[in-house]
Design a protein that fits this description.
heterodimer; A: about 775 residues; alpha+beta; Aldehyde Oxidoreductase, domain 3; Aldehyde Oxidoreductase, domain 4; 3 domains; 20 helices; B: about 270 residues; Uridine Diphospho-n-acetylenolpyruvylglucosamine Reductase, domain 2; Uridine Diphospho-n-acetylenolpyruvylglucosamine Reductase, domain 3; 5-stranded antiparallel sheet; 4-stranded antiparallel sheet
Chain lengths: ~775, ~270
């Protein structure tokens, strides 16, 4: 390992611009003649739009246009799509209602747009939007799962009777029934996985610019995957063919999944920019973020686990209702199915699993992937179940897990996934040691003498990351392949530009990817630049989500580098009059082994471009590209142990310690990995203790600002104790697994298990607010 | 934010005169409530009269019997005042627990009291210490000042100029923070006057804003100790109930915070 190569804690190259205010976000961009968009949004959760009177608004200062849902339908802009086809038990495809970018007839959640005002300034647009008179006929609303599936519930979409999108299953029902029939013990559990609002630091924003001379659009947008945005906008929304649409995602201030999707606002901005023949900017405010960014989670689950007399798991049965909100967002259908039920085996040998998932429409903001996406929900079910079982079976929770750990790899679970590698005992043992598990009873007794309730909780999570294998996801209904591409350009002076289809919105790719390249060639990371986020520069890419950028995007870079290195070695060998098999690359030099002959990288690059003395038949230049599509997911896994103290007087939970022992395979930049883990753990703790989107009975979002939606602050979370255990992923050339979501996937169960251990009752839902914990203690 | 006219007043009289000229005037002090509400277009004052830079409204005076905090004095200045900390340590402590550093640098005692947010901290101290609110027209006793949610005895255009707190024999404040807003989910200020009178006020709990808590006052009168409250039951009637705390939880917090405030008071 070099000082800047693989394994080095290099400070992030991008941070200077971020922390000195030099980042360039969408809202920082100003185009000549730019107008501003302000949406007119529904104040009702469910209503018929009887009429829209724009006449007063049109007379207001600076107003360029007022455009409505009916106009966008008339112009044949496509309805929003859901890109993963799921089939119900009976083989029928999922039942979807239409989602126009602005509602022409019916609004189905508070905040849905019905019209847009385009004006010369942001304030003029705001003023005029307030003057647009919309005549609504209110309809009864179904603001949660229970209300939507009740008999006589309001019907959201005629296409989905009973508000059921699909009734899906996975696993072997008969085998699972058999497992329960012969069980010595059955443990059952009912859980709510609370709805979350993503709350990226930067709200969504878009600038659309139409050039009528070229009949060409440019869209600057807050996207995690600009190429996918362009593909969807071209292929499904009829905005423009791909060669007439450039999508640029510049610096983006966090996404957590919420910026994967193509939203109505970006579509409307593009459409409107041609209508008014001016650039149109829309920057969402925080209220719009709460109301329109796709929310996460929101499951109701019943689960049962069957054990034999030796506490070995025989089977698992899970029934989940998943809330999709009012419309099916881009990847929503896959989240509670193939990203959820496929992980229900956890780290355990479970011979039989049967899961059924009912997808439900409600009069709420659409729900889609949010950090972890399905896997936190699965991990929460499995790990709350294991802890509950340990208590019911009266065995130590660590021992129960050890009894059931998978130890042989590869391991085929009954729910599709084939785990390639792992060492679950190693991470559990590391965490037990770090938290001094043996000393816990004494600490608990001491706390009790001080009037505090102390508890310890475990979570042994596993996730499927490196979201890719195109063949696998295609067979499960995905509308796209999930490979990644990379291009390596060696400039004539030997500096290197890497073009990647991954997109960094906080992950530090500019550093990590540079380290990868620097390590291979023995050069400085300053000689390497990472280019991403522009469809005119990068040929194609699938973007960043699902902890995939290093495992898939990084591997594509490796493949392209291998091609570059092979050609460079040929050039060096020719120049040095040696065999290319004798050329090795060290410290930026191409050396002939066993001699003192060498050629520096800039000389090789220069030779490639001057082309005066290349081997016969070789093309000039030094630039290669590669597409990488792995054969399997990666399986990061680990153990989180959390020790808490609960104040019985107030119900407030404080952290004593939090240990995370993760196996992410090889680490390129451990410091960046730790940052990702800290962020993920904090979001997991946020879900467990603080965060929860709440709708009232009429479908109003009660938690529509930070006054009521509790985000974790620095003093809400402990100083984490991180450990790494390592098994290299055999499925990619780097041996990496992905680290972006682990914390958010594993932390919640550890926290709730610790609190319920402390207070001696298992009846506790997230977020475990002081109020809820106090009620759980005092009944 | 809607368009508005901003005036920086040079004196209290100037402020009152400017206020009278506007059709729908609002006084601005630290701006910790008014400005966010205006930014969200939930308030549209015709005129905003800034009191925060009037010299006569800034400063702290401490005598043997009273701590007088002028109305535009920031929470930061009260929290950091050695004189306040010596005379009524619980008051300095309370000021240091309001919001976060940015709020404390801007927010003022007069603004907090005039707004009378049901979860604000200062009203609890004013009511429990039996303070006097001085205005440009009169003085108002604490018991008369608070009149329900966001409602006070202030007349239209009346300006708080100072608040005078009698120095107590013992005083303490404890609060449970709201998980999201960090306002007081419930905060309780306990005070024993030099005369021996015990007054206890809770904020964040009642549907009517800050309130006295007679059951706790009664228990502490005979026995100033946290243990004296063990058997006290605070009624949940009339308390707020929302997603962050039910009425019975808040009733419990009134008692538990009172116990901790007594411990804090010593």
């Amino acid at each position: 390992m070099g000082v800047e190569g693989i394994g080095a804690n290099v400070k992030r190259k991008e941070d200077k611009r971020f922390i000195t205010g030099k980042g360039r976000y969408v809202d920082d961009i100003k185009l000549q003649g730019m107008t501003f968009a302000q949406f007119v949004r529904s104040p009702h959760a469910h209503a018929r739009v009887k009429g829209i009177d724009s006449s007063a608004a049109l007379k207001m200062p600076g107003v360029v246009a007022v455009l409505t849902g009916q106009q966008i339908v008339d112009d044949q802009v496509g309805n929003l799509i859901c890109g993963w086809a799921i089939h119900s038990k009976d083989g029928t495809p999922m039942k979807m209602g239409a989602w126009p970018a602005m509602a022409p007839e019916t609004v189905r959640f508070v905040g849905q747009a019905v019209a847009v005002v385009i004006a010369e300034t942001r304030n003029q647009a705001r003023d005029a939007a307030e003057a647009v008179a919309v005549d609504y006929e209110e309809l009864p609303a179904a603001p949660n799962i229970r209300a939507a599936i009740a008999s006589g519930a309001p019907q959201l979409h005629p296409e989905a009777p009973g508000n059921i999108v699909y009734d899906w299953e996975l696993g072997d029902k008969a085998a699972t029934d058999d497992a329960f029939a012969k069980a010595a013990n059955v443990v059952s559990l009912e859980l709510t996985n609370n709805r979350l609002v993503p709350n990226a630091m930067e709200p969504r924003a878009a600038i659309a610019s139409y050039d009528d001379a070229e009949d060409h659009f440019t869209l600057y947008t807050t996207s995690q995957n600009p190429h996918v945005a362009r593909l969807v906008l071209s292929a499904f929304y009829n905005i423009a063919p791909e060669n007439k649409l450039r999508v640029i995602a510049p610096d983006v201030g966090g996404g957590f999944g919420s910026k994967i999707f193509i939203y109505p606002e970006e579509m409307v901005a593009l459409w409107a920019s041609r209508k008014v023949n001016r650039p149109v900017k829309w920057t969402g405010d925080r209220t719009e973020a709460f109301l329109t960014d796709a929310h996460g989670r929101d499951h109701l689950t019943k689960a049962e686990m069957a054990f034999d007399k030796d506490n070995r798991i025989l089977g698992l049965r899970v029934s989940t209702h998943a809330n999709f909100g009012a419309y099916m967002s881009l990847f929503s259908s896959s989240v509670p199915t193939y990203l959820y039920a496929t992980l229900l085996s956890g780290q355990y040998n479970i011979p039989a699993i049967y899961a059924e998932v009912m997808g439900v429409y409600t009069n709420t903001t659409p729900v889609d992937a949010y950090r972890g996406a399905g896997r936190p929900e699965a991990s929460y079910v499995v790990e709350r179940m294991m802890e509950t079982a340990a208590r019911q079976l009266n065995v130590d929770p660590a021992e129960l897990r050890k009894t059931n750990f998978i130890t042989q790899f590869p391991h085929q679970t009954p729910v599709i996934m084939a785990y390639d590698t792992g060492d679950f005992h190693a991470s559990l043992d590391a965490a037990l040691k770090s938290i001094d598990y043996a000393g816990f009873p004494a600490r608990q007794a001491k706390a009790k003498s001080e009037g505090k309730l102390r508890g310890i909780g475990f979570s042994c999570y596993i996730e499927a990351c490196g979201i890719a294998p195109s063949k696998a996801v295609g067979s499960l209904g995905a509308g796209v392949g999930l490979w990644e591409s990379a291009e390596v350009r060696v400039n004539p002076v030997g500096t290197i530009e890497i073009l990647t289809g991954s997109h960094s919105h906080g992950q530090g790719h500019e550093t990590t990817f540079s380290q990868l390249v620097a390590d291979r060639l023995g050069i400085s990371i300053d000689q390497v630049s990472i280019i991403h986020g522009d469809t005119d520069k990068v040929q194609f890419g699938m973007g960043t989500y699902g902890s995939r950028s290093l495992a898939v995007g990084g591997s594509a870079i490796v493949k392209a580098m291998e091609k570059v290195e092979a050609k460079a070695k040929k050039i060096a060998a020719h120049a040095l009059e040696a065999s290319e098999n004798d050329i090795v690359i060290e410290n930026g030099e191409f050396k002939v082994t066993g001699t003192d002959k060498s050629l520096a990288l800039p000389m090789v690059a220069l030779a490639a471009y001057t082309a005066h003395n290349l081997p016969d038949g070789m093309e000039p230049g030094l630039k290669e590209s590669a597409f990488y599509d792995p054969s399997n997911f990666t399986f990061p896994a680990g153990t989180y142990i959390c020790e808490v103290e609960v104040d019985p007087g107030t119900g407030k939970t404080s952290f004593v310690n939090f240990v995370a022992a993760d196996d992410f395979g090889r680490l390129i930049n451990p410091m960046i990995v730790e940052g990702q883990v800290h962020g993920g753990l904090t979001q997991g703790i946020g879900q467990a203790l603080l965060e929860g989107a709440v709708y009232d009975d009429s479908g109003q979002l009660v938690t529509a600002s930070f006054m009521d939606y509790a985000m974790p602050r620095a003093d809400d979370v402990p100083s984490y104790q991180l450990q790494h255990t390592t098994t290299l992923c055999p499925g990619n050339p780097l041996g990496v697994k992905g680290c972006g979501e682990a914390g958010a996937i594993g932390a919640s169960a550890a926290v709730i298990n610790a609190i319920t251990n402390a207070i001696g009752t298992n009846k506790l839902e997230m977020p475990a607010t002081p109020d809820r914990v106090w009620h759980a203690i005092h009944g | 934010m809607y368009q508005t006219n901003y005036h920086r007043a040079s004196s209290v009289d100037d402020a009152a005169a400017q206020f009278a000229k506007g059709t729908e005037s609002k006084y601005l002090a630290g701006g910790q409530t008014l400005l966010p509400v205006m930014k969200q277009r939930l308030a549209a004052p015709s005129d905003v009269i800034d009191l925060a830079r009037i010299p006569a409204l800034i400063g702290i005076e401490v005598s043997g019997d009273a701590v007088t905090v002028k109305a535009a004095t920031t929470h930061y200045d009260v929290a950091g005042s050695a004189d306040v900390a010596r005379a009524i340590p619980a008051l300095a402590n309370l000021a240091g627990m309001i919001g976060d550093p940015a709020v404390r640098y801007c927010g003022t005692i007069g603004g907090s009291l005039a707004n009378n947010d049901p979860a604000a901290d200062y009203p609890a101290a004013v009511l429990a210490l039996g303070a006097t609110v001085k205005t440009n027209k009169r003085t108002i006793a604490a018991d008369d000042f608070f009149q329900g949610l966001f409602s006070t005895a202030l007349e239209d255009g009346e300006i708080i100029t100072a608040v005078s707190f009698p120095v107590a024999a013992k005083a303490g404040y404890a609060k449970m923070r709201h998980p999201a807003s960090r306002f007081a989910l419930t905060g309780v200020f306990v005070a024993q006057a030099k005369s021996g009178e015990v007054r206890v006020a809770a904020t964040g709990a009642s549907q009517d804003g800050v309130m006295r808590v007679p059951a706790i006052e009664q228990a502490l009168k005979g026995n100033w100790s946290a243990a004296a409250l063990d058997g006290v039951k605070v009624s949940a009637d009339g308390l707020m109930s929302d997603i962050h705390g039910t009425a019975d939880y808040r009733a419990n917090l009134v008692k538990v915070m009172a116990q901790r405030a007594v411990a804090d008071a010593g």
